[in-house]
Write a structure and sequence with these properties.
Layout (H helix, E strand, L loop, with lengths): L7 H14 L5 E3 L3 H13 L9 E5 L13 E4 L2 H17 L14 E4 L13 H4 L2 E3 L3
Parallel strand pairs: 1-2, 2-3, 4-5
Antiparallel strand pairs: 3-4
């Protein structure tokens, strides 16, 4: 039986392998909620301190991101807007309101900086991106 690629187990195994093969690694980006959970399990098991020893950044704002310590920094997708936009596009296609070629819709993500990323310098964040970044210092 194979493990799904974006599962808690695969996040755990991949993170363990990364940590074993890259001593002194300073940052990790996990691709979704489940892989972030798995990575945090491996990091904790190895006794690595987040963010002092390893910065962790995830993709998808997840319920546990603000509950566990440290709070996990993430790139957040507008989940509700994704669902609404998808439903609208499907309905438009099904009812014939849109019969043209498929269109690409780009929705805005946001960076939620919390406590899982080590602060190196206040000059690290540049202005064009900073308007999409929120800070949580809890």
């Amino acid at each position: 039986m194979s493990t799904p690629i974006f599962s808690i187990e695969s996040g755990y195994r991949c993170c363990k392998r990364l940590l074993d093969n890259n001593p002194g690694m300073t940052a990790l980006f996990a691709t979704n909620y489940d892989t972030t959970v798995g990575a945090m399990m491996a990091i904790n098991e190895c006794g690595i301190s987040v963010p002092e020893d390893l910065s962790v950044f995830g993709f998808d704002d997840m319920p546990f991101a603000k509950v566990i310590k440290p709070h996990i920094s993430v790139i957040a997708q507008p989940i509700v807007e994704i669902g609404q936009t998808t439903a609208s596009l499907i309905l438009d296609r099904m009812t014939g309101r849109n019969t043209g070629p498929a269109k690409i819709t780009v929705l805005k993500t946001s960076v939620e900086l919390r406590n899982s990323v080590k602060q190196i310098s206040s000059n690290t964040i540049n202005d064009p991106v900073s308007n999409n970044i929120s800070h949580d210092n809890k």
